[in-house]
């Protein structure tokens, strides 16, 4: 059973292995206040090691995703309150990094608008879904600040050239264009389609094994910093998976929990305890195996 923290500015719903996190200050268009940032940090810290929580959707109550940083924060920066502004910037930077690296799959479902830091939160998510008429904008440079903490995630989401142009020009655009730019992965024409798209994404994720998803995400995030030689060596020689017996719904299946040895497009499966070996094609192995706890031994 999932264990969820108490939060002041976020509403949490957990159903069938999936957590939905709602920004819950609709009367203020769901700003990223200090309290909201701390609540988000608390949620991330609480769920990151809970494998029964398979994924997390971030949404906004009142039909509005997130308006970005609140006026108090902007005023602190504009007034020259350096210590305070640096503290706020570092904190949101740390939280965004944790969100980006969360082992579970994350989905941003955007209605209304996602602006500045709120759009940065969305760019940290693995999948972005939004309404065709939702509004998007990188407004930081219009008010005299830089998108310091979200820039890396914007570039990660929509590419260097596009992200550079959007942030430098404080671009404003709607959902249809966001889809073309790569800011949105899926664009919905109405709320029914929006819910259907999210449901399909969740179904796809729930058919995967949680450990495999976590390992794959760590692999993807670490790839840009990994030298080419290490990429080859680590994947070819050092990632070996140990096999153990496991059962799901009383059906015995082979679970990969450590590493696998792939040679000539075949996979050798060692079932410890039974001291049995099987060799099969990769396609056959994928039909038989459920990847649950895949932690590369590097």
Written description of the protein model:
Helix 2 crosses helix 3. A six-stranded mixed beta sheet has the order 1-2-4-6-8-11, with helices on both faces. The C terminus is likely disordered. The protein has 298 residues and is α/β, with parallel strands linked by helices. The protein has two domains: 197 residues, Alpha-Beta Complex (2-enoyl-CoA Hydratase, Chain A, domain 1); 81 residues, no CATH class. The protein has eleven helices and 17 strands. The chain starts with 9 loop residues before the first strand and ends in a 7-residue tail after the last strand. Strand 1 and strand 2 form a beta hairpin.
State the gist of this model.
With 298 residues, the protein is α/β, with parallel strands linked by helices. The protein is built from eleven helices and 17 strands. α1 packs parallel to α3, α2 packs across α3 and α4 packs across α5.
Descriptive key words:
six-stranded mixed sheet, 298 residues, alpha/beta, 2 domains, 2-enoyl-CoA Hydratase, Chain A, domain 1
Cα Rg:
21 Å
Number of strands: 17
Label the CATH architecture of the largest domain. Answer: Alpha-Beta Complex
**Mean pLDDT, as a whole number?**
81
Q: What is the helix fraction of residues, given as a range?
A: 25-40%
Class computed from helices, strands and strand pairing: alpha/beta
User: What's the level 1 CATH class of the largest domain?
Assistant: Alpha Beta
Shape: globular
CATH topology type of the largest domain: 2-enoyl-CoA Hydratase, Chain A, domain 1
Main sheet attributes: strand count, strand direction, barrel closure: 6 strands, mixed
Domain unit count: 2
């Amino acid at each position: 059973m999932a264990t969820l923290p108490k939060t002041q500015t976020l509403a949490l719903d957990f159903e069938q292995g999936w957590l939905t996190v709602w920004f819950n200050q609709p009367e203020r268009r769901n700003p990223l206040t200090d309290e909201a940032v701390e609540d988000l940090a608390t949620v991330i810290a609480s769920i990151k090691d809970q494998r029964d929580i398979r994924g997390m959707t971030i949404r906004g109550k009142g039909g509005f995703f997130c308006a970005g940083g609140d006026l108090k924060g902007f005023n602190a920066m504009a007034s020259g309150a350096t210590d305070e502004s640096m503290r706020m910037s570092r904190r949101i930077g740390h939280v965004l990094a944790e969100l980006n690296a969360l082992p579970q799959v994350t989905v941003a479902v955007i209605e209304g608008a996602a602006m500045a830091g709120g759009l940065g939160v969305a760019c940290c998510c693995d999948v972005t879904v939004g309404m065709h008429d939702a509004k998007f904008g990188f407004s930081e440079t219009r008010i005299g600040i830089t998108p310091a903490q979200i820039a890396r995630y914007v570039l990660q989401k929509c590419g260097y050239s596009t992200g550079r142009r959007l942030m430098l020009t404080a671009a404003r655009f709607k959902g249809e264009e966001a889809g073309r730019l790569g800011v949105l992965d899926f664009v919905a024409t109405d709320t029914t389609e929006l819910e259907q798209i999210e449901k399909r994404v969740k179904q796809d994720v729930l058919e995967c094994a949680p450990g495999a998803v976590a390992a794959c995400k760590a692999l993807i995030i670490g790839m840009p910093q990994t030298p080419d030689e290490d990429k080859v060596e680590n994947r070819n020689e050092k990632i070996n998976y140990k096999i153990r017996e496991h059962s799901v719904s009383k059906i015995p299946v082979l679970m990969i929990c450590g590493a696998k040895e792939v040679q000539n497009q075949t996979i050798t499966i060692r079932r410890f305890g039974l001291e049995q070996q099987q060799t099969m094609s990769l396609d056959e192995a994928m039909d038989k195996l459920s990847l649950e706890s895949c932690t590369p031994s590097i």
